[in-house]
Write a structure and sequence with these properties.
The relative contact order is 0.19. α5 packs across α11 (228-234), α8 crosses α12 and α13 (262-273) runs antiparallel to α14. The chain has helices at 2-5, 30-33, 46-51, 58-61, 84-104, 114-126, 166-171, 176-191, 194-207, 210-216, 228-234, 239-255, 262-273, 288-308, and strands spanning 143-147, 154-157, 161-165. With 328 residues, the chain is mainly alpha-helical.
Length: 328
Amino acid sequence: MSHLTDPGFFDPAADPHLPSAPAYGFGRCPDCAAGRCRPEKGSRRLFTGLLGAAALSPALSGTAWAREGVEVGGPSKLTKLVPAEQVEQAGAQQYQQMMREAANQRALLPNNHPQLIRLREIAKRIIPQSEPWNARAKQWRWEVNAIVSPQLNAFCMPGGKIAFYYGILEKLKLSDDEVAAIMGHEVAHALREHARERMAKTAATRLGANVLSSLLGLGNVGDTLLNMGSQLLTLTFSREDESEADLVGLELAARAGYDPSAGISLWEKMGKVSKGAPPQWLSTHPAGPTRIRDIQANLPKVEGLYARADKPMQRFEVAPPLQTRPAS
């Protein structure tokens, strides 16, 4: 991405229009903000329950998940309906398009900006922890970029394409541990292939009765999905997806040497910002207090991992207000 992030300057007041930006991200569910969000009817385990043990992958039903850390179960079997390669390719294309849009509007931090260096250093510690959660992560071409925008958002598209908006760094005055909590959460969405699962559920709706037989035979019906890239832009994650990403992100951060309890201070900050009418970035599910309770309940499962993990040698300053030019 150096050809996009090496301009001599950027616009610190940029508020870019990015048609290729995904609708999902760190807390982007308008229905929750309006009080319309409710738990899904059933869950991602529905098809697993229907199929029984015969449909479970041997690799996931053995000791692979009997491990130290959080417990979220195996990946959704429903993702088999959609080829991972196609989803990752679509994610890469959308991400590149978004970066071009941002660059054209002088809204990308250059490679030498301290906050982009910070994000990439934190990612270097989190990414190696991802492979046990998804074997495909080893071959992903990970990217980390920062968008000059007041929005409080971050995301990780399929295939390891990470972006932070400067607004979330600056306005929440995030510590490195809190950045790691957000990054771990977003990376968890990619590792658990929540976008792929959402697409598979769309395919299941279209395919009707053929889904169950295809799933039983592990048939590849992913080619029935059209306009995969446009689907990535409009996906929303469920309450279950968000809770799962919180827990997996908690473990990723702990193994990377970042204090997992930072998830508590992160959501406390969000709660303070949300006084009055909740802003769109906070319209995520479940609600902040619920997430704090879940994090507190799961901290004992990852505290040993954090205690034994190598800690970062370098700590970074909280993001300051943007200047017209990055430090030379």
